[in-house]
Amino acid sequence: MILALETSCDETAVAVVHQGRVLSSLVSSQTRLHQEYGGVVPELAAREHLRNLLPIARSALKEAGVRREAIDAVAATQGPGLPGALLVGFKAAQAMAFALHKPFVGIHHHEAHLYSPWITGDPWVADFAAFHPNVALIVSGGHTMLVHVRAELDHRVLGSTLDDAAGECFDKVGKLLGLPYPAGPVMDRLATGGNPRTYDFPRPKKNDPDDDFSFSGLKTSVRYFLRDHPGLAEDPQRLKDLCASVQAAIVEVLVAKTMRAAGRCAVDCVTAAGGVTCNTELRRQLARACAARRLTLRVAEAALCTDNAAMVGVLAERKLACGQGLTGLDAEPAPGLALG
Ligand code: KG4
Ligand code: ZN
Cα(191)–Cα(240) distance, rounded to whole angstroms? Predict the structure, then answer.
């Protein structure tokens, strides 16, 4: 019985996982709190985690129908993430493990994202029997990366963003367009009524042979475009066309690079997770590209795309079962932790 905590950014999340089954998974999002600042304020995020974590942990145990004494191990995200935010969840989890005399598992946030596409059904169960070696696209507000998952718990990072993450690009472009934070979902909605071929924005690194991404130039090109076309984004139809055109550029790069990596790694399966994977057009284009190449596509369910503790618990359980993952109670959170 695993009690898992996730506090790497602005979601306070707790889950209870038993033999691959997610008995409860609660997420308290701080989005509204940070909205007025146009982005996540790290200190506010940490304080909010501190306020909410224990009540959410109690609720998660209650919802799972599990008593504290039944917990076999406690897991928490170790990194990467915001230092103060990570510290709250990581140290709380260590304290719980200490008090309960149970093992503690520190989990890499991105590694947890790698396994969220394998959690399916209602109630959620980790379907590792269906696991296939895959190329995983992890794409959110804080990260954009391609990973070759050769086997369970065996992966190699192929490439990541050199500057802004794709979600950050959505959010920053949205800010230029006067949209509320986080702008990704708003742009997604507006784009459905727009023509993606109206404006031609760059597709950075789309045809480069490496697996890295770069989105800051795209954001800058939108800034110059708006400077040269003042007032254009105030026209409702032009705004929709702009959203659709920028979205098309981001999606095209993500899909093209994912497909090339899948071909080079000779996998028959592509997975995707992270907040941006909620994007309608990205889902549609990934599905189309995978179908054309006869690749299996597994995209995490919407509620598992964004940050959650179910993926942390599932991975922690898997690691313990394979004799891995035990972390000392004196270990520290690692805000810059790289994925090996
Ligand atoms: O995974 P997540 O909840 O948090 C981290 O960044 O770790 O991802 C949030 C990001 C934000 O940048 C948000 O704008 C983006 O995911 N996002 C979307 C959509 N839904 C969320 N971007 C584009 N289209 C969406 N539908
Ligand atoms: Zn994440």
Answer: 5
